[in-house]
Amino acid sequence: xxxxxxxxALRHHKAGTVLIVVQIALTLAIVCNALFIIHQRVAQLSQxxxxxxxxxxxxxxxxxxxxxxxxxxxxxxxxxxxxxxLPGVADAYATNSVPLSGGGWSMSLRLKADQSAPSAQTAIxxxxxxxxxxxxxxxxxxxxxxxxxxxxxxxKDDLLHPAVIIVTRTLADxxxxxxxxxxxxxxxxxxVSTIIGVVERMQTPxxxxxxxxxxxxxxxxxxxxxxxxxxxxxxxxxxxxxxRSAPEALFAQNRMRVIPxxxxxxxxxxxxxxxxxxxxxxxxxMAVICVMLLAITAAGIVGLTSFWVGQRRKQIGVxxxxxxxxxxxxxxxxxxxxxxxxxxxxxxxxxxxGLNLWMVTRFEMQHLSLWYVLAGxxxxxxxxxxxxxxxxxxxxxxxxxxxxxxx
Amino acid sequence: MFAYYLQLGLRSLRRNPAxxxxxxxxxxxxxxxxxxxxxxxRAVSGDPIPWKSGQLFVPQIDSWxxxxxxxxxxxxxxxxxxxxxxxxxxxxxxxxxVIYPVGLSLIPTGQxxxxxxxxxxxxxxxxFSMFDVPFLYGxxxxxxxxxxxxxxxxxxxxxxxxxxGGADSVGKVINLDGSDYRxxxxxxxxxxxxxxxxxxxxxxxxxxxxxxxxxTRAIDLQIGTDGNNNCTKVAAAGWDGxxxxxxxxxxxxxxxxxxxxxxxxxxxxxxxxADQRKSGRFDWxxxxxxxxxxxxxxxxHVVPPETRVSMLISLGFLVVCLVNxxxxxxxxxMRRAPEIGVxxxxxxxxxxxxKQFLLEAAAVGLAGGVLGxxxxxxxxxxxxxxxxADVARLAHMNLSxxxxxxxxxxxxxxxxxxxxxxxxxxxxxxxxxxxx
Amino acid sequence: xxxxxxxxxxxxxxxxxxxxxxxFNIDVKEGEFxxxxxxSGSGKTTFLTIAGLLETFSGGEYHLDGIEVSNxxxxxxxxxxxxxxxxIFQAFNLxxxxxxxxxxxxPLRYRGMKGAxxxxxxxxxxxxxxxxxxxxxxxxxxxxxxxxxxxxxxxxAGGPRLLLADEPTGNLDTQMARSVLExxxxxxxxxxxxxMVTHDPELAARAQRNVHIIDGQVVDLAEEPRFHTHADAAxxxxx
Lengths: 407, 436, 239
What we know:
The complex is a heterotrimer of chains A (407), B (436) and C (239).
Chain A: H1 3-10, H2 14-45, E1 56-63, H3 69-85, E2 89-95, E3 105-110, E4 120-126, H4 131-135, E5 139-142, E6 151-154, E7 164-168, H5 169-175, E8 185-188, E9 191-199, E10 216-219, E11 221-224, E12 227-234, H6 239-253, E13 257-258, E14 265-267, H7 268-275, H8 277-311, H9 313-321, H10 326-363, H11 370-396
Parallel strand pairs in A: 4-10, 6-11, 7-9
Antiparallel strand pairs in A: 1-12, 1-13, 1-14, 2-12, 3-4, 3-8, 5-9, 7-10, 8-9
Helix pairs in contact in A: 1-10, 2-8, 2-10, 2-11, 7-8, 8-11, 10-11
Chain B: H1 2-15, H2 17-45, E1 56-61, E2 79-80, H3 81-90, E3 95-106, E4 116-123, H4 126-130, E5 135-138, H5 143-147, E6 152-156, H6 157-164, E7 173-176, E8 179-187, E9 211-214, H7 215-220, H8 239-243, E10 248-255, H9 259-278, E11 288-292, H10 293-299, H11 305-335, H12 337-345, H13 350-386, H14 389-392, H15 399-425, H16 429-435
Parallel strand pairs in B: 4-9, 6-8
Antiparallel strand pairs in B: 1-10, 1-11, 2-10, 3-4, 3-10, 5-8, 6-9, 7-8
Helix pairs in contact in B: 1-13, 2-11, 2-13, 2-15, 11-15, 12-16, 13-15
Chain C: E1 2-12, E2 17-28, E3 33-37, H1 44-51, E4 59-64, E5 67-68, H2 74-84, E6 85-88, H3 100-111, H4 115-129, H5 144-157, E7 162-166, H6 174-189, E8 193-197, H7 201-204, E9 209-214, E10 217-219, H8 230-237
Parallel strand pairs in C: 3-8, 3-9, 6-7, 7-8
Antiparallel strand pairs in C: 1-2, 1-4, 4-5, 9-10
């Protein structure tokens, strides 16, 4: 198939050609960036939390009436005993926060007491000897907390000064890249703590923190304050049952508490869904727009090519009369579309990169991987060929006798 | 001629139902995507208090100093207790107030009823006049309750409904976390979007608060903040240690009705900052900033980046749909070149051709607008999937959005039709008639 | 009625200039029936399209009904086409999307005529061409001769003073051609000026005057112009 006559013919449809080129280019630019956003968001929301999430429930509990901080200690102990006795419950503990919940404590860590810039930032999880088994955290080095490690801490009167801590592997590697972390000491605020264990992974309560999403520290304290979170691991298949029975049991035990109607009792599945709602939403929106965009562009190519075929019936008839085979006609239109498509794709690559650079400066996006652009370009060329196939086949079926018909 | 052209246009559109459907679908989807994301953007980017947003200001003071890993100009988004109290005492602005969120439990009088969680704000009485809070019953508490740590409370209509069945409850007593409060006023439903005076805590689009209480009383009762509390150094132990630490947790607002008042307040802030260095409290001269409502909302990134990016991508989608429509209209119009030739020969001027074809395009646009309206409605149901629940709840169809959807569809289609119509009007009648 | 003096029409492409008409002079009097003949490519059709204000010309003057048309804008030219000129084409040029009634209505619409008057005019002209029963038919449902009669009805409906016909019978068989020609003669009898381009000598013979165009110029063939009376013309077709 000769390309030159096709190009010459295209000059007679300048406007239509330019429009398809522009449409392909814009589509490529938008689809590349949208796919890239999808990729980022999906990568974000498929990060593991480090927890065995399937059977976890969190209850947010608020004590009513001002009590002495010391009193909270015994209230919490009673509650935990109640929860652990409950049928269907495998284990439970009390804490200030859980991964992905969006609220919690963070502190900086230093390797030396007099160091001016901190060595790392970490999320602080108040924990006890049941924490690892409740959350299903994997201990990869050292040991778990023992019951006698656990101390009470009054939110108003005490400062955080744990003697022993457990850290995540992410944090351990950051603090001690070359040696084992277990047995080493770090400074939390101004107090020295010894790392006794390392867990494989535990996400922080927040997403998108610059200091990393898995730099967490477990401290062996019971935080004495009017609000606390109970985390429950149920036996398999008992999640729904415990979800109802646990708050009932707590109220039966002591009515002077508030468990909020909203987010008061949640499975970890719900916490995860809430945390990633905007990521998932963005990915869905971008996917919907990509599909619509590709469909509209394909339909536009079908429409315009059909028009051209209709316009050129006589010309096609003449070609057929002069000996062109059906295959010749088919490949004429396919080649024509390929040429237009390549024009569009070249322009589109430039636009895609330009759009991405602009979004990088405006919306703190990351740089687009070139593979996306290339994959998008190939996809659009294939889409064009697919779209042009039906009108091209119709063209190839124009009988040679068309040449002799007038009007 | 309008009716005639409309009739011709509809007839022509009926002749190529597939092509017409394609154009209508393209415009409908393009407009719907844009309008859905625009509705969300509009909901989150509106001015919450348009009549006064230029007179309300937030002062910021760099009480943390350099070298805390922050970028230049990145001041703490709240004040420490020390600075907030100093500014209140100076009383330089026309009106001023501190605000911080508190979460308390409301203890019902009955023995069987469960306590309920109640969210509110600790503030000064100026709060209500500064923000034009509408009262249903009573009024805000007197200044004497601010200075005298009075146990007044202003409750919302919703809470009044729950506790008092909606009756005028001024003077009645409610119990929050074991302390009694006397109701001084009940406010009407009032929840600015975004809740500009508390955007540092949460998205700014949450549900309405339940009550407002005097700040001085809350401090007296040692009620901690229910919002963010950011500290550089660990505070000394105890309530007093926390109050006098570097922790920032108090929002501060001033009302400055004139440009002169703004200038005066700015000078005052600079002077205050300089004094802090002189007195030896800081070993740096703290930077200060005074932002009005819209500057503050920008500074706090209240409009989530998702809404901007998605609106941008949707607009791009609309542009592609329009380019597509240009192509299809061009094909459709040029297929009728012979007809145009005949019409021109029979006395149609170019202007008449313009009218005829633009009207046909407008009909396509209108149909696209109607489809777009339906799809925008579907989109509104779907925004909950895409945006945070608090934000998604705000996006809704109203008359202005309906009109805008149809208008955008028609105008966009007319723009798309300009080139094809120009080509149609430029058809040389002689050539068309000869070529046959 | 129609007077061209030293008129020229040049088609320019990137490479060549082609004169379609060169120093073209013609004067058609009010009420005349003129046949324009000439070999194909001689410029007959160009002459007709310029005469009908479908095309502009490059030089010279053209007075139509006393008006110099070269300086008129598009609106004014359209108005003249609409009110004074009727066209009949070889290919009929009916609008396929419109039925017979609506086709005839087109020029009346552009004149801004009221609905009742439009209807009356349309029915009158349909009656004249004998196609009242076909008012709701679409062009594709009619024979060639019927289509041309619709085209004539459309040209007539506006009551044109000048009827321009381009090979009006070229696509028709003899029988149909005859009835179409009779219609045109009928219109002439009613006072319209008729300019008909044709290459058929028999057809040309029925005009009052023949003008021959060769290479874009009028060649006066007739030393003694053959004037025919209407009676003569009728006698020749129906011996």
